[in-house]
Write a structure and sequence with these properties.
With 488 residues, this protein is of the alpha+beta class. The chain has helices at 7-17, 35-51, 87-94, 147-159, 173-179, 182-189, 197-207, 222-228, 266-279, 300-312, 357-365, 375-385, 415-431, 438-445, 452-464; strands spanning 26-29, 56-61, 81-82, 85-86, 95-96, 101-108, 111-119, 127-128, 131-136, 139-142, 166-171, 210-212, 218-221, 243-248, 256-262, 283-285, 294-296, 324-327, 331-337, 392-395, 399-405, 436-437, 468-470, 482-485. The chain starts with 6 loop residues before the first helix and ends with a strand.
């Protein structure tokens, strides 16, 4: 919820009055402060604001609903209680799904005014005590009696993206520049910094980072905030979406060594966040074919790609959690809220799909992530070069996790580890227009040629698990056999 103070409240109120009449998302009253009525209006105004592409709905006390004169009100929202419970808490509990609303009490010409601002719903109609309401003109109605409006809300909700929603509303040019890291924007996009703030505001507007507010000033979109916020803590509903890294002692989460929270927007803070992670990683002697030197235990390219994927593919509508990197003694877990849109076994070959298209597009523009959907391919390739165990991709209903493992000898890998590595190697060959062979798998695992039966056993187990298959089922030559993924 954006904060409104002082003169902004007076300008907002006068802007609402200047509309000349009540509408679907604005209701004026004098003193009728019945709690049940307020709850019904919050439901109706939230639903109607969404339907009419407004960021908020407004319930105003102290203004005549006919002549729209400011007459003042005896209603004191802050002092109202239901039993021993504050009215605000009671209303919040009765509204479902939870929706932000704020009551502002202020005076104009010595007359008391209460302005309640409620967020437009986002995902589905808001109900009060289990009943959903809507505004038809300036009249409050039950939504069930207007199925055409209910259908429009559901259909519109399915198309409304996180990036287009408003993070902070009705702010001045100077407040925009104070909240967003505009020098970083022009640095990352390689464009000259305009001499005046008008040029900066115009550029941000053209990018969809801010919008012109219908009443006064500008609105910062979620896209603008999540990319270029100087501090995500200035946008309360986005603070939990900050990039977070936790370093643990040992192999469990029992003891935390330290935690790092990056409150910068993703575009502004990505490079420093990835650099921080790499600085925490131990070094390792790489003895693979491609590299023979002391380097970080995990490939920096893999870290970069997986962190970018973590940010881009998260489900921002899952509250209370965000993207996180956890570093253990034997592994790194990189996770984000929201199930992947592509089955984990098909991450290597599938065309890029994102639930946050505008966010993904911008981060691709500034070379944070891959535009062609080859990021996971690069992760697998770099892991093979470092002779690490195959990454594991975990899909659950509410989250996705990628796990990178520390160096492990082949003899200490279990069957699942070997199957996963064999499958990923086979996929990597296939998307490179090649096929996997016993020889290529030996190179992957650093198995000596004389131990080719060991590679053959791994291949046989992967075939038995249904993960790979012969590229030519008619071929009788085991020596010349080649393999492709099960889906090829």
């Amino acid at each position: 919820m954006s904060e409104i103070h002082g003169q902004h409240l007076e300008k907002l109120l006068k802007g609402l009055i200047a509309r000349g009449q009540e509408c679907e998302w604005v209701e004026f009253k004098e003193n009728n402060s019945n709690p049940e009525l307020i709850g019904e209006y919050l439901s109706a105004l939230s639903n109607s604001a969404f339907l009419h592409n407004e960021t908020f709905g407004y319930l105003v006390y102290g203004v005549e609903d006919k002549g729209l004169q400011i007459v003042g009100t005896k209603f004191n929202f802050k002092n109202e209680k239901i039993g021993n419970e504050p009215l605000e808490n009671w209303l919040a509990y009765q509204l479902e799904p939870k929706v932000d609303f704020t009551a502002f009490q202020f005076e104009i010409d010595g007359k008391n005014v209460v302005l309640i601002q409620v967020d437009a719903t986002r995902l589905r109609p808001i109900s009060f005590k289990g009943v959903e309401f809507i505004r038809v003109g300036s009249v409050k109605k039950k939504l069930k009696d207007h199925p055409e409006k209910e259908a429009k809300i559901w259909e519109k909700a399915s198309r409304t993206s996180f990036e287009n929603r408003i993070a902070k509303s009705g702010i001045t040019d100077d407040e925009v520049l104070a909240l967003l890291d505009y020098p970083k924007y022009f640095e990352l996009t390689g464009t000259p910094l305009p001499q005046g703030k008008d040029g900066i505001i115009a550029r941000f507007t053209s990018e969809g980072l801010i919008l012109k507010n219908k009443i006064e000033g500008h609105d910062i979109t979620n896209l603008g905030a999540i990319l270029f916020a100087k501090g995500l803590d200035k946008f309360p509903h986005l603070e939990r979406k900050a990039m977070r890294a936790v370093i643990y002692k040992g192999k469990s989460r029992i003891e935390t060594i330290k935690e790092h929270l990056s409150l910068s927007g993703y575009a502004a803070g990505f490079e420093s966040f990835v650099a921080y992670i790499n600085d925490q990683l131990p070094s390792n002697e790489v003895i693979g074919k491609a590299l023979r030197k002391t380097v970080k235990m995990y490939p920096e390219l893999a870290i970069r790609e997986l962190v970018a994927n973590m940010l881009i593919h998260q489900d921002f509508d899952i509250s209370g959690t965000g993207a996180m990197v956890e570093i253990f003694e034997d592994r790194i877990e990189i996770s984000n809220p929201g199930s992947p849109l592509v089955e984990t076994l098909r991450l290597l070959d599938h065309s890029p799909v994102s639930r946050n298209e505008k966010l993904a597009y911008f981060l691709r523009r500034i070379n944070v992530c891959e535009e062609r959907g080859t990021g996971i391919d690069k992760v697998i390739k770099s892991v093979e070069e470092y002779q690490l165990p195959a990454p594991r991709f975990v899909q659950e209903q509410q989250f996705f996790k990628a796990v990178l493992y520390a160096p492990t000898e082949l003899k200490n890998m279990n069957r699942d580890d070997k199957n996963r590595a064999c499958y990923q190697h086979c996929c990597l060959k296939y998307v490179s227009n090649q096929v996997m062979t016993n020889e290529s798998l030996r190179e992957r695992f650093q198995i000596k040629e004389s131990n080719y039966p060991q590679a053959s056993r791994i291949i046989a187990e992967a075939i038995e698990a249904g993960m790979i298959k012969l590229s030519d089922p008619q071929s009788k030559s085991k020596k010349l056999a080649s393999y492709i993924p099960f889906w090829a």
